[in-house]
UniProtKB/TrEMBL annotation:
<keyword id="KW-0560">Oxidoreductase</keyword>
<keyword id="KW-0223">Dioxygenase</keyword>
<feature type="domain" description="Fe2OG dioxygenase">
    <location>
        <begin position="231"/>
        <end position="330"/>
    </location>
</feature>
<keyword id="KW-0479">Metal-binding</keyword>
<keyword id="KW-0408">Iron</keyword>
<dbReference type="GO" id="GO:0016705">
    <property type="term" value="F:oxidoreductase activity, acting on paired donors, with incorporation or reduction of molecular oxygen"/>
</dbReference>
<protein>
    <submittedName>
        <fullName>PKHD-type hydroxylase</fullName>
    </submittedName>
</protein>
<dbReference type="InterPro" id="IPR005123">
    <property type="entry name" value="Oxoglu/Fe-dep_dioxygenase_dom"/>
</dbReference>
<keyword id="KW-0847">Vitamin C</keyword>
<dbReference type="GO" id="GO:0031418">
    <property type="term" value="F:L-ascorbic acid binding"/>
</dbReference>
<dbReference type="GO" id="GO:0051213">
    <property type="term" value="F:dioxygenase activity"/>
</dbReference>
<dbReference type="InterPro" id="IPR006620">
    <property type="entry name" value="Pro_4_hyd_alph"/>
</dbReference>
<dbReference type="Pfam" id="PF25238">
    <property type="entry name" value="OGFOD2-like"/>
</dbReference>
<dbReference type="GO" id="GO:0005506">
    <property type="term" value="F:iron ion binding"/>
</dbReference>
Length: 379
């Protein structure tokens, strides 16, 4: 069917780390050999990128004493500069390029709809969604959800006016970057068209979206993949149609929980196809018939699924489709996962193997019991 699965990774994101001016303010920029154990480092687990959050918290104790009380963004920026010297050449270039890109955005980009940048639930969300999440009970959340296939939830979410404004903002972003004679950075390694919203100042709004609106839902539906401990995100839009991407290959997301909402415009095609949840080891294993599910995008309607739920998007054969994606991650879940081998609570293949082991063990016990009763001897 869809060929080998590709694990998607977004381009390195240092977007939430400030504007890169911090380091020039320091006179003594040398790290200290001995850590200052009295200093309580900040938490960095909400920041996404190549380097683990714990590295920043440890390194912070080695900062020059004058820097210890600097704002977190300034410390992060400085540490990122230090660490980038140790990255392989390719990574260093990526970090540098991204820094320049961010500087350009800060200089040239003037938002069209400023009201999009701070969370305004009544203006962004449909009343049914807003109420269900504000009531914050399992019952209220379940009342607006459909589960057309196990682990995939769909629900009406966004106001048409919000979708329209966000589409206009994305067009404005594209025009701004184009007029600077440069290109928008790809939202991830597979989609070529769209933009990383976090790069354009949406970081705080999307953090609120995740914390206040998606976490309550993920706690109910995805506790097994870190849904109770989401702590960072990658937010972007993808675009399909003429002169853009047509379809999207079979893949898993670099997320624990993915929110995918269609913003519009008008289009034909673009259906999502799902093929069961898999851990790293089983990502290319066969699909069983009950795992096959296709979903038609509807503007304003959200789909929520585990990042490890294998999926892709069929060709958008006419019109223009724009979707908002929020890949939500949990650093705790990722850390714990390193020490685990069995993911039968969410991986379809681990589950199948476990059931098979149990079946064999029951069959062996039955055989022993039978032999014991028919021979009268202890085996
Ligand atoms: O085009 C779509 O709706 C799917 C996008 C997607 O799966 C992704 O960006 O991870
Ligand atoms: Fe995806």
């Amino acid at each position: 069917m869809d060929g080998a699965i590709e694990r998607r990774e977004e381009l390195i994101v240092v977007a939430s780390a400030g504007n890169g001016t911090a380091s020039s303010r320091f006179v003594d920029r040398r790290l200290r050999i001995s850590p200052n154990m009295e200093h309580r480092p900040e938490r960095y687990d909400d920041l996404t990128g190549e380097v683990e959050a714990a590295v920043f918290s440890s390194l912070e104790r080695h900062l020059p004493p004058t820097m210890l009380d600097f704002p977190r963004d300034a410390k992060f920026q400085y540490m990122m500069e230090v660490l980038s010297r140790y990255l392989p050449e390719g990574e260093r270039t990526k970090v540098q390029k991204h820094k320049e890109y961010r500087k350009l955005i800060i200089k040239e980009y003037k938002p069209l709809h400023r009201e999009l940048f701070s969370m305004n639930p009544a203006a962004f969300f449909l009343p049914s969604f807003f109420k269900a999440v504000s009531d914050n009970t399992e019952e209220s959340i379940r009342s607006i959800m459909s589960e057309p296939s196990p682990g995939i939830y769909t629900f009406p979410m966004l106001q048409p006016s919000f979708c329209q404004m966000l589409i206009e903002e994305v067009e404005h972003i594209e025009n701004t970057i184009r007029s600077c004679g440069t290109k928008i950075m790809k939202p991830n390694t597979m989609n070529k068209y769209g933009a990383v919203l976090d790069d354009f100042g949406f970081d705080a709004m999307l953090t609120k979206l995740m914390e206040d609106f998606l976490s309550p839902i993920s706690k109910v539906y995805y506790p097994d993949v870190g849904g109770t401990a989401l702590d960072s995100h990658h937010g972007f839009v993808v675009e399909y149609g003429n002169n853009r991407d047509l379809d999207l290959g079979f893949h898993v997301d670099d997320s624990e929980v993915t929110l995918n909402v269609c913003l519009g415009k008008q289009f034909i095609g673009g259906e999502l196809f799902f093929r069961g949840v898999r851990c790293d080891k089983h990502v290319n294993s066969d699909t069983s018939p009950e795992e096959i599910f296709d979903y038609n995008h509807v503007p304003g309607q959200a789909v929520l699924h585990r990042g490890r739920h294998r999926h892709g998007a069929r060709a958008t054969t006419a019109g223009h489709r724009i979707n908002l994606l929020l890949w939500c991650r949990s650093s705790t879940f990722r850390e714990l996962k390193k020490y685990q081998k069995d993911f039968s609570s969410w991986c379809g293949e681990c589950q199948r193997e476990k059931i098979e082991r149990q079946r064999q063990s029951i069959a062996a016990t039955k055989m022993q019991t039978f032999l014991r009763s028919s021979t009268g001897s202890v085996i």
